[in-house]
From TrEMBL:
GO molecular function, one term: hydrolase activity
Database matches in SUPFAM superfamilies: alpha/beta-Hydrolases (SSF53474)
Segments passing through the bilayer: none
KW Phosphoprotein (keyword) present: no
Protein name: Alpha/beta fold hydrolase
Pfam families named among the record's database cross-references: Abhydrolase_6 (PF12697)
Keywords: Hydrolase
InterPro entries per the UniProt record, alphabetical: AB_hydrolase_1, AB_hydrolase_fold
Domain AB hydrolase-1: residue ranges: 4-220
Species name: Lysobacter koreensis
């Protein structure tokens, strides 16, 4: 049985991946790597953290959701022993909305005590949104220190690991959310143009694809 290492989205906790992790069974055993909620680590530091938690005695695959895509790319480019493949879900190698880089100064200056999950859920989950999911996302985000969320958002706005995509020598699967209002189609194009191994599967769903369509995402990975 192959181990799948799951790397979470912006919240970093992994609680929102429970249904997807269950859907990977019985073919895969899932392990979620959680990020610190009280320390603002940049992408390089998060990559080092995940590297320390990779399996040492069994083959594994990486599945990275949204924010964690650059972490998976940096790890895969280093070619760790045992890595069988990488899955990027609604993710990116470069800042998904480059025009927003102009607002990074504003993001640094503004107080960051409240993250409007209720207002953002229609954007993140579209018609798949529900009160239950809004509450779960709200709780997951509230568990993270505001300064940590700010750091992660700033890093998303400036990241560029696209040059490393060419160094990945294992299969690379990109799961494209057909209704993604946050990460554009161009994010996949950037990866496709730099990879010899990348394949894209489009799944009907919102940016929170692993949450809205866990069975379908798991089936695509199994295939």
């Amino acid at each position: 049985m192959t181990r799948v290492v799951l790397l979470p989205g912006l919240d970093g906790g992994g609680e929102l991946l429970a249904e997807f992790a269950a859907a990977l069974a019985p073919e895969f055993t899932a392990t979620v790597v959680s990020y610190p909620r009280d320390v603002g680590l940049d992408y390089a530091a998060l990559t080092a953290l995940v590297c320390e938690r990779l399996p040492r005695d069994e083959p594994f695959a990486l599945v990275a959701e949204s924010f964690s895509g650059p972490v998976a790319i940096m790890l895969a480019a280093s070619r760790p022993e045992g890595l069988l493949g990488v899955v990027l879900c609604a993710s990116f190698a470069t800042a998904p909305r480059p025009r927003l880089r102009a607002f990074t100064g504003l993001l640094r200056a503004l107080p960051f005590r409240w993250f409007p999950t209720g207002l953002l859920m229609p954007l993140l989950m579209g018609r798949w949104s529900s009160r239950a999911w809004s509450r779960r996302v709200h709780d997951a985000v509230r568990a993270v220190q505001p300064a940590v969320l700010r750091r992660r958002l700033l890093d998303v706005g400036t990241v560029d690991v696209s040059a490393l995509v060419a160094e990945i020598n294992c299969p690379l699967l990109y799961l494209q959310a057909s209704r993604d209002r946050l990460v554009p189609y161009e994010a996949w194009v950037t990866i496709r143009d730099r990879s010899r191994h990348a394949v894209c599967i489009e799944i009907e769903g919102p940016h929170f694809l692993l949450q809205a369509r866990p069975e379908e995402c798991a089936a695509a990975i199994k295939r």
